[in-house]
Amino acid sequence: MHIDLSQFDNSWYNPGRGVLVRTLWHFFNALFMQNPLNPSSKLKVFILKIFGAKIGLGVVLKPSINIKYPWNLEIGDYSWIGEGTWFDSLEKIKIGNHCCLSQGVYFCTGNHDWSDPAFGLIVKPIIVEDGSWVGARVMVLPGVTIGSHSILAAGSVVSKNINPNTIYAGNPAQAVKARKIGEAAELGVRSKESGGLTQEEGLSA
């Protein structure tokens, strides 16, 4: 057997809105979300809600965000979405409360069945639980749940569920150490006394 892309058929997939709404969103996305000249979180939140997104209180949306289908996006209270974040939301993406997504994060909810000669489409949701930090340039793949208050270090690739209160790094992302919320404050005090954190005490995200 060989891959035959002429046989690809995603007619079963329901994008959630009709052609007119999807076309309108394409232009609104380009003008107001992806446009680096629009710094206003309030305007972006207002537009996203019009198109069916669920956005909580105090959400910060930086410029140059790309969103496939906003009606598949939910963001909880006081979460931050960094520059260049790409929500490829063929399926549901749910971001919890008090989450931080750093620059250039990519959330991919769509994949292909490599064992299928027609390269069939696969879609699965992504969930980020409360208090998590997704570092710069992290790629999160379909079906992943990022556990509460976990950290993904910069450049990580995440294909499996992430345990709560744990720091992960690498490709594929692997557990590095436990996250202790009060630990950073203690290290900050020591850094002032000693002139800075050691490489072992700090972890870039």
What does this structure look like?
The structure is a single chain. This protein is of the alpha/beta class and 205 residues long. The chain has one domain (14-180): 3 Solenoid (UDP N-Acetylglucosamine Acyltransferase, domain 1). The chain has helices spanning 19-33, 41-50, 183-194; strands at 54-55, 60-61, 66-67, 73-75, 80-81, 86-88, 93-95, 100-101, 106-108, 110-112, 121-123, 126-128, 133-134, 139-140, 145-146, 151-152, 157-158, 166-169, 174-178. A hairpin with an 8-residue loop joins β10 and β11 (121-123). The longest helix has 15 residues, at 19-33. Residues 196-202 have low confidence and may be disordered.
Main β-sheet: number of strands, strand sense, barrel status?
Answer: 7 strands, mixed
Q: How many distinct beta strands?
A: 19
How are strands sequenced across the largest beta sheet?
2-5-8-13-16-18-19
CATH superfamily: Hexapeptide repeat proteins
**Terminal Cα span:** 43 Å
Strand content: 15-25%
Architecture per CATH nomenclature, i.e. the level-2 architecture: 3 Solenoid
